């Protein structure tokens, strides 16, 4: 086997991935126990960002881990047709050729979208492959595929027939640029400075009510003014009316608890057709709903002629000018406010009253709520259960129609009198219409398409070929876990639970793992405007997939956002190098894998210690994986591989390999057997480097991805060796620390006495004289049953062992003691200053989170350093 300096990930990653794919290792292997994760389908327009990198790394870890546990694993891949996003991409491409969508018509436009999809729609999947995602790509689905489209129609028809889908006139988020309703997730709430205008609404010639509004143009649609029933100022006015400026309408003054007496004047204008809260009040008080806008947010004909046809902001300007002339503008206040913008169009969204298709989410939410209450679906971390309940118990009808061309066209046709026929296809709808009208009539299909989230809500079973009763549907529904971000708990998670519970009579997944957000190193949200976006593709080019994957895993602390920086990724590259160097150490020393290796028969205390440490690590990792504590898994791997294996085992075996003692062959076998087990346990997180090293050890064997991750019990007869090796490590560590703090030159040899009343312990320590000499640079080691006091020495007590380090002629103990005391005083001053800051409530309230965390870490580190110095001072006699 050739010894290589490092892992050339750019050379090997794509080759390894192709081998996995070509050998069909991503496909489910028949097994009693199924394990399924439904990949949240990225938008077909998408490109890999850090959020993707995090969520797909987590999923791939779970998939690879459970595959190696011998389960029948399906990671169902696919992409979402992303209605608005995709339509905009293709429209913009056509506009570059001076072609408008409406010029070529719906049918030709859809053809253009499919062309684009064929050419560019696979970008995100190719990037996911670079990350190492081991999904079964042969089963890849697209939400506009024929099978999924049939599932969408079936679901729509069944829900319509059950009266759970219906048409209604309600308020929606309306995008006046894209001319469609959009979901809350497609609305960006942006804080900006604006004005609050206080306007007088006359009651009679002398009296008036003052209302305040940030949108004065909407006053044209006011149909009431609300006051709190307990507000003494307005009690006498309840039931009376006031005059709406610019109109000849009088609007009632109503009593409603929605009006807050402490806010503004306490009187609130009610515009039921243009405000979500006012909409509910309008229904409650049976008020008129007056729509004042066209679909392009221009003033419509229901308003005074002087404003008709004006853009909403031009109308606002004119209304304010006229109010001032009429002496009805009381005052203007500047203030910060949150304004809704369309995330695709960039224009302000209007609550707009329009005829749309709705789904009865209230009814469909009952079973998911019950499932979570009964523990059939668990949220991890559990705190998200509260968010889920809060949304579900206050759920509103779900607007499922969109005024787009790209998407699942609603399977509803209209007769001459607008009677609705919901059917699978035109032929079926014609038959229904003929039966209804007793003759053949012309019918027209609804132009609208379904909300993208509607097809996504069916994802957990439509991808398994529902409504057909397939093997996959029976085997993999419900799935084991859904991995996603908190921002789509309502939009996707809850809706999948609604649809799964309704159509499959089972909640679609047992666990919902909500991963944290990825922020920059200062805890700031990543955005283009801040210039702090970290591109995962650049990190993959610089450091490789394994380094990025391990970094993300190590930072995945539940309940805390991931603070990522390139420096962190770069830092973890050294861990890959450490593993690589360990493999080279084994090759140099001609270690080999014995397939008949009997770990429970080994004799060397060091090898016995390593075996039990490995088994403990594997058991702990299994427990953490069950609880989705990925950062703990990464930490266990790091501690065992870096410290136990590379730092201690490698160092402590050098004398065995150099001197070829009685444990020489056993150590060569143990070192390699354990390293092979290391490759197995790191594979779910670091698949590429582990697979490559595996191929160097086993040239003609199955690939690592296909290996079983077995569990082993600790060997009880090795327990004493574990205790003794831990003791040995502590002794070496303490003496090394002493050398460092006392500034004893590295090449300066020291003499030590080791004493312990326990003869067995003393006998064990004597076995490692050559290791003491090599690691501590000693020229003389004495072993005693009882310790003796030697002047100009340092004493260390480690459990029941006393170590005497001779310092005479090595250093000036008085001088070094003074230096240490001076160092300690400096640290105490620093510690006091940091504690003072941390105890300052003003600092804690104003300082950024990352600065506070930095100070806390400094405080712990300095405190630990002071304690170590105290131990050194106490040790010098």
Which helices and strands appear, and what pairs or packs with what?
Elements: H1 9-22, E1 34-38, H2 50-68, E2 72-79, H3 83-95, H4 101-120, H5 123-131, E3 136-142, H6 146-161, E4 165-175, E5 180-182, E6 187-202, E7 208-213, E8 224-227, E9 241-243, E10 250-255, E11 267-270, H7 276-284, H8 312-325, E12 329-342, E13 350-359, H9 361-364, H10 366-373, E14 378-380, H11 384-393, E15 398-399, E16 401-402, E17 412-414, E18 420-422, H12 426-437, E19 444-445, E20 449-450, H13 452-457, H14 459-462, H15 471-476, E21 479-485, H16 489-504, E22 509-515, E23 518-520, H17 536-543, H18 545-554, E24 562-564, H19 566-588, H20 605-626, H21 630-659, H22 664-682, H23 687-697, H24 719-741, E25 750-755, H25 759-766, H26 769-776, E26 778-784, E27 793-798, E28 801-806, H27 813-838, H28 841-846, H29 849-875
Helix pairs in contact: 1-23, 3-4, 17-18, 18-19, 19-21, 20-21, 20-22, 20-24, 21-22, 21-26, 22-23, 27-29
Keywords:
877 residues, Isoleucyl-tRNA Synthetase, domain 2, Isoleucyl-tRNA Synthetase, Domain 1, 4-stranded antiparallel sheet, 46% helix
